[in-house]
Amino acid sequence: xxxxxxxxxxxxxxxxxxxxxxxxxxxxxxxxxxxxxxxxxxxxxxxxxxxxxxxxxxxxxxxxxxxxxxxxxxxxxxxxxxxxxxxxxxxxxxxxxxxxxxxxxxxxxxxxxxxxxxxxxxxxxxxxxxxxxxxxxxxxxxxxxxxxxxxxxxxxxxxxxxxxxxxxxxxxxxxxx
Amino acid sequence: xxxxxxxxxxxxxxxxxxxxxxxxxxxxxxxxxxxxxxxxxxxxxxxxxxxxxxxxxxxxxxxxxxxxxxxxxxxxxxxxxxxxxxxxxxxxxxxxxxxxxxxxxxxxxxxxxxxxxxxxxxxxxxxxxxxxxxxxxxxxxxxxxxxxxxxxxxxxxxxxxxxxxxxxxxxxxxxxxxxxxxxxxxxxxxxxxxxxxxxxxxxxxxxxxx
Lengths: 177, 210
Hints:
The complex is a heterodimer of chains A (177) and B (210).
Chain A: H1 2-28, H2 44-69, H3 80-107, H4 114-136, H5 146-173
Helix pairs in contact in A: 1-4, 2-3, 2-5, 4-5
Chain B: H1 4-28, H2 35-38, E1 67-72, E2 79-85, E3 88-94, E4 100-108, E5 111-116, E6 121-127, E7 130-137, E8 140-147, E9 154-162, E10 165-173, E11 179-185, E12 191-192
Antiparallel strand pairs in B: 1-2, 2-3, 3-4, 4-5, 5-6, 6-7, 7-8, 9-10, 10-11, 11-12
């Protein structure tokens, strides 16, 4: 237990720093209402909704490939499960980054209802948890449960973010591009 | 091989940095002429003289917007009110009979951007003591120019539990004292609202509209 904490101390500090930094920036920076848009979509909101949905989809691939790697989907998992896990994770992360930039730059931390409050808190938490997971990955000698727990936190946060944004958007405004 | 997680993080950071720079360029383009609007200063044709402003011009961090506008939409079919506290905006469109729409969003850098249920949207600009823009609700769209509301003019909202149903009422009070409002019981059609006692009621708080 102590060796886990020792190994994880720097990743934990880095993750916490990311979460706090995002929260402080989102609170202090006045939302501009303006950010770059992607051609082909009707508004920056729909871009975000679909990028977040892409990230959530790859997060599901993450869950499945992780289960396969740990032999939960049957013994002798295929060798490509690890590759699939790494690349689906990279793609999901790269989908999430532009969404976060727009949230932070154009909107900022918001608490005018429980949905926006939960979304704001989870958004800050997600990138901290992801940083922690990435920095913990190369550490050798971690207990076997550490990576699945960290991955589970990242996955849960991302799905929570999707539910409080894209899912809310689809059920409130309908499925739009 | 063991360094790839760090590379992933750095790649994400690089993408974020590029997008931030692009967003800053996109946001600053129209910002020059919106700085005064953001603070609801009276529109002045001349460049601000240094003697007039002992405080530095708020180019870096525009003050958060606090304002209320209320008026009649073009054509006179409905009234609209927009209340803003610290940049958080609530708008209400109402014809006093059947049509109503609540919208939430932001007011910053001279721009209004709000959305509501069933695809309702409001986009517009503000400054110089008025807000102008376009609102889409119930499948229709209206343009409007609404002046700054002076108390007791403005936007009021009340939610109450009556006869085992939630009833939400909204009132827009115009400068001449005219009230336009409806009450909507949960899942039912709106009906005209009773007259609001503006001496006792408090205007809506956009950050806590319920």
